[in-house]
Amino acid sequence: MSTFSYEQLYKFTHDMLLKIGCPEVHAQIGADVLLSADMRGVDSHGVARLSGYVRLWEKGRINTNPNIKVVHETPSTAVVDGDKGLGLVVAPYAMNVAIEKASKAGTGWVSVKNSNHYGIAGYHAMMALEHDMIGISLTNASPLVSPTFSKERLLGTNPISVAIPADQEPPFVADMATTTAANGKLEILQRKGEDAPQGWVQDKDGNSTTSSNGVKDGGALLPLGGDREHGSHKGYALGSIVDIFSAVLSGANYGPWVPPFVAFLEPDPNPVGEGIGHFFGAMRVDAFRPANEFKSHMDNWIKRFRSAETTPGNEKVLIPGDPERELEEYRKTNGIPLLDPVVKDLSELGQRFGVKL
Amino acid sequence: MSTFSYEQLYKFTHDMLLKIGCPEVHAQIGADVLLSADMRGVDSHGVARLSGYVRLWEKGRINTNPNIKVVHETPSTAVVDGDKGLGLVVAPYAMNVAIEKASKAGTGWVSVKNSNHYGIAGYHAMMALEHDMIGISLTNASPLVSPTFSKERLLGTNPISVAIPADQEPPFVADMATTTAANGKLEILQRKGEDAPQGWVQDKDGNSTTSSNGVKDGGALLPLGGDREHGSHKGYALGSIVDIFSAVLSGANYGPWVPPFVAFLEPDPNPVGEGIGHFFGAMRVDAFRPANEFKSHMDNWIKRFRSAETTPGNEKVLIPGDPERELEEYRKTNGIPLLDPVVKDLSELGQRFGVKL
After folding, report:
1. One domain, residues B199 and B304
2. Same domain, yes or no: B141 and B214
């Protein structure tokens, strides 16, 4: 484990993105999105992903100088074609379209096709906050998750993020995979050689397993709920809604056709759409009631929940976004720790392209 | 157990609603919403609720001749004041506003205050389908659910329903409480004297329990996920989002302030808003891409998922909405079975008001 400052990793990421052909402004946005994951503790979606993006670019599956554009629109909606760009760059473009639509029509809703992995969902949702808007960010992803009663991998971990502004209190920011546990958590257990809890994974035959290698060995992650008795059909429905809003609405690939994130797996030769898909929403709070009223009630909501009586052994009730914000504060002063394999991977990448880590 | 025809229960409900002062058109809508729950197998939200509504009316908490109106709007949004009306009637009004907005602006989003229990979430979402729109329906509800790490009941079972049109295939219709299990399922176990699975309920001290009387005895339902290790913070976040969209946006009561559904419990003397809240959305699919393209891809999505390989012991993979639709078909020919206590309750209600069951 080594620790790096934000500036150090930002500069490295920015310079690497320039090396693979990103225009300056895209390198800045891409580095900002990626680093926000490291700062907020979603380490699996931060700089650790950079070499994966580079390999996809080397295979011609990512276009680092894309012509991102709106291809269809109404007063409150748009479809954005990402032109095979980095999702890190396509997503903020599309979210800005949603915010612009909302500033005129009250709300804005943008479905995106022909994109790639977009980093953490929460970054894009949170873009709405400074405009006194509620932000929503969804994306589909490579299939790793089985629907209830199926042994096939048909869905990604398809996250949902919703960011809601408050007044004196920090904003409410939910950012969650629609599975019981994110794949990143499983990978941590794998590295430690530890078992996973029941309800996270099934094996390749569709039987419940506690092996943290279950997914690697051909099994699948389970939808939020774990099994039917504990509501996995709800997690499956949520993941499906994310898939449909992101890809069936836009014309991207959906379900098992979503192209794999890893460069060594080839996309389906008969795609049903273009690239992967995202979905963004922005709602002006004053399209419903005066913003100061809304935000002061949000403060009240947050205070009431945060001060709720706790269950035995727990110190406090958290508001969605609390843990990530606290970690962000901590890492601002203390730096970002990276695991040795990640440091090695980034160093080798930098050497190959002449960029110093 | 006795079985009744749709027509019989519809007429009874309709006539009862007239007796308590609903105008004819409201009696028709209210009966239609309530009966659709019985037809779709959500028995806890059907005619079994009728005497509860009547008791709330008797207490002056439901206004059966409300002046429902839009009190704030933008091209794609509105706030509806339900004037203390039956949610069964307020909700379709608000959903129609969302549909009208969508027909012009591409999408429509309506937050509702000053309403009451609205029946099954799915009814309202499904209103969008015939317009080739995606329908969304959320509501908050009396607090029965504890956030992760809390022993207080701060949220309702706050359901999410999303209805998505297809072409030849039946529509995709998700309709789910944001808890591991709906309260209705727990009540069934109570009646049978059976235990509940782990992860459904906690006791009044916040400890996990398998007692199906846990909620009755002062405990709480658990958010989808059950416990932190299985993602209950995600179910808690989803229930919170439903609460905020339904009530903080509109000016209804939220969290622990939501008035209880049962007439023998008094609402909080210091409310933070008016009545309970709902949230509706309608998105024209052709605000994103041509409707025929969208619907034919939905057919493809549905067929692929429905034909997925199954896990051991399971016959087929279900699409959200399949079980409810199949039951609806069955009950059309075979009638609606009602438990003896429900029949007794309705008979007594009818006698009191001179309406024949």
Report:
1. no
2. no
Same domain as A165, residue A79: yes
> How many structural domains are present in chain A?
3
Enclosing domain of residue A191: 185-221
pLDDT digits (tens, 9 = 90+) for A31-60: 999 999 999 999 889 999 999 999 999 999
Tell me if chain B has a CB within 8 Å of the CB of A240: yes
Q: B48, exposed or middle or buried, with CB in 10 Å at 0-12, 13-18, 19+?
A: buried
Contact predicate A150/B311, CB 8 Å: yes
Q: How far is CA B171 from CA B10, B107, B129, B134, in A?
A: 25, 19, 8, 10
Structure tokens given for A250: 């836009």
Contact between A163 and A298 (Cβ < 8 Å): no
Q: Please name the residue that has the structure tokens 């500033």.
A: A103
Residue A116 in any domain: the answer is yes
Which residues in chain B are closer than 8 Å to A304, comparing Cβ atoms?
A: 154, 255-256
Residue B344 lies in a domain: no
- The CATH number assigned to the domain holding B155 equals 3.30.1370.60
Q: Are A74 and B106 in contact (CB under 8 A)?
A: yes
Kindly state whether residue B283 falls inside one of the protein's structural domains: yes
Chain-centre distance of CA B199, in angstroms?
Answer: 22
Note whether A213 and A187 are within 8 A (CB).
no
Q: Which of A224, A230, A226 is nearest to A198 (CA)?
A: A226
Tokens of A22: 């990103």
Residue B306: list chain A partners with CB under 8 A: none
Interface of B with A in 281-310 (CB under 8 A): 283-285, 287-289, 293-294, 297-298, 300-301, 304-305, 308-310
Q: pLDDT (tens digit, 9 = 90+) per residue, A64-111?
A: 999 999 999 999 999 999 999 999 999 999 999 999 999 999 999 999
Paired tokens of B144 = 């029965």
- Within this chain, do residues A103 and A245 fall inside the same structural domain, yes or no? yes
Assigned token pair, B308: 């997925």
Chain A residues in contact with B278 by the CB 8 A cut-off are: none
> What is the token pair recorded at A255?
């379900």
Structure tokens at B278: 């709902």
Query: What CATH number corresponds to the domain at position B191?
Result: 3.30.60.50
CB < 8 Å to A320, chain B? 233, 236-237, 240
> Do residue A59 and residue A90 come from a single domain?
no
A241-294 pLDDT tens trace: 999 999 999 999 999 999 999 999 999 999 999 999 999 999 999 999 999 999
Q: Do B130 and B161 lie in a common domain?
A: yes
The reply to whether A79 and A217 lie within a common domain is no
Contacts of residue B287, Cβ cutoff 8 Å, sequence gap at least 6: A74, A76, A77, A109, B102, B106, B107
A323 touches chain B (CB under 8 A): no
Which residues of B, range 192-221, sit inside 8 Å of A by Cβ? 197, 199-200, 202, 205-207
Q: Which of B158, B160, B89 is nearest to B118 (CA)?
A: B89
| In a shared domain, residues A8 and A50 | yes
pTM: 0.98
Residues in CB range of A130: below 8 A, 6 or more apart = none
Name beta bridge partners: A223: A179
